[in-house]
Structure formats: structure tokens, C-alpha cells
Amino acid sequence: xxxxxxxxxxxxxxxxxxxxxxxxxxxxxxxxxxxxxxxxxxxxxxxxxxxxxxxxxxxxxxxxxxxxxxxxxxxxxxxxxxxxxxxxxxxxxxxxxxxxxxxxxxxxxxxxxxxxxxxxxxxxxxxxxxxxxxxxxxxxxxxxxxxxxxxxxxxxxxx
Length: 159
Known about the structure:
Elements: E1 2-6, E2 20-30, E3 33-39, E4 44-46, E5 49-51, H1 58-70, E6 74-87, E7 90-101, H2 113-118, E8 120-126, H3 127-136, H4 144-156
Parallel strand pairs: 1-6, 2-7
Antiparallel strand pairs: 2-3, 2-5, 3-4, 3-8, 6-7
Helix pairs in contact: 3-4
């Protein structure tokens, strides 16, 4: 499934093709819970994941990012939805995957310097509570509502 979100007033002809970012997001299920990240400095909740590196498949990206950010190894159950976000200054393509834990053992995190500086908290919550959080949380971050809306759409179309 493909979902496109256009910034206010944008049309297809306005799509920015120069600043194009591709990422992967994981909906990690463990029993009746899913894993969320809260990024303290940015005041946003997200699903684990991040950007695609050169010569990396989407699946490799997802597993690498999840391991780095959460310490968990995951098994991919299936891809679920791709959300495209179009802004005047950039285009974002996020691929969502439904996953399960390969093991409940949590390895050491391997955060970037920026991720360490921003601080993060991991929490397991029900998918209903996660949807409510993504839909109702009022982030102080300039782009927070866009990120929360994207995660809501990704999660809603993945469970």
C-alpha cells in the first residue's frame, strides 16, 4: 500500500526531487505490545527506524536501525505500507514493516552522537495506546505534529 501526504497547498508538480530521503520504520510486536521511542530533546514519539544507507536493502536498513536504536534483533513478518511525505523543501519515503523479536535479549545500543545528545526512552505500550499517543500528543517540536501524524498513519495501516 502507498499513502501520499502533501504539505498544505502543494500539488504533484511541486514535489521536491532534489532532497529525497528514504527510511524504514518497525512495528515491533511482543505479545500485545509494540515498541516506541521518545526522543527527549526533540519532544517526539516515533517507531524505531531510520535512514537507508547506500547499497543497503530496505530490510537490511530496518534491522540495522532497530538494532542500533533499541538493542533488539527483529524478524520481519511483512512489509505493510509506504508513506510518502511531500514538503516544499524535501520528500520523505518511509517503509513500514511489521516485525517480531528474534530474541527478548537486548544488546547494547549503538546510538550516533546526535541520537545520544537528543536522548531517548524506549517503552512497550499497546497499539491502541500508541495510536492515541500519535493522534493526541502535542509536541513542542516545529515538525512534531507531522512526524506524529506520519507514525499514526504508518501504525494504523500496519496492524
